[in-house]
Amino acid sequence: MKFTGIDHIFFDLDHTLWDFDLNSKLAYGQIFRERNLSLNLDHFIGIYEPLNLEFWRRFRESEITKEQLRYQRLKAAFDACNYAVDDVEINHIADLYMSYLPNNNHLFAGCKELLDALKAKYRLHLITNGFEEVQHLKVKQAGLDGYFDLILTGEAAGVKKPDSGIFYQALEKTGATIANSVMIGDSLEADVRGAQNIGMPAIWFYRTGEPVPAGQLIAKELADIHSFFEL
After folding, report:
1. 20-72, pLDDT tens digit by residue?
2. N or C: which end of the chain has fewer CB within 10 A?
3. DSSP code at position 18
4. Residue 146 φ then ψ, to 5°
5. Phi and psi based region of residue 82 (left: phi greater than 0; alpha: psi -120 to 50; beta: remaining)
6. At residue 208, does pLDDT exceed 90?
7. In 35-184, where does DSSP find H-type helix?
8. Structural domains of the chain, ranges and CATH numbers in brackets
């Protein structure tokens, strides 16, 4: 199918355009080298990534604070690896990670080609639950800042996806309407259902083996998204 009557396309950033897992691993690799950590990086990442997703879920649902997220995901990962790291070092690693993360800017294949094609006809925006200072740095240093009219973070909005409030703020700030907008993101809960809960259609950037709800539009690669729009 192709969307008609669309003027605004809202994207998620991490895991959708910006290759979070790869960039995150590179940041931790630098930290492990600088801090002389003897823990195997691949082993750590294998433990850390699912824990990080769970702590982000808890943060998204306001069960924990930003500071608790930054500390607890590392504490839990090091404990699960049976690798002793004291609280001072964990907090230092957390600070280094936030500093280094935007320096690695691998994008998913076809990202800029897709944005170039869409930008010629549509207004593009970002809605992201990531931290304000880090997300803007990621966008700038990845060379994406010229594509988006609005970059709205959960931190700036005061609410996070899937809360309808962040979607309504994005619509108000851009002059978009539910009827002329589409959301694209990798999270079924935050991006897809968050948008659909206010009546906005959504494309799921499908990177997992989760069951696909009946009728849900999916794109397994960014290049697949071209087919949904009149270009």
Report:
1. 999 999 999 999 999 999 999 999 999 999 999 999 999 999 999 999 999 99
2. N
3. B
4. -80, -5
5. left
6. no
7. 41-60, 66-80, 87-100, 111-119, 132-141, 154-157, 164-174
8. 8-18+106-228 (3.40.50.1000), 20-103 (1.10.150.240)
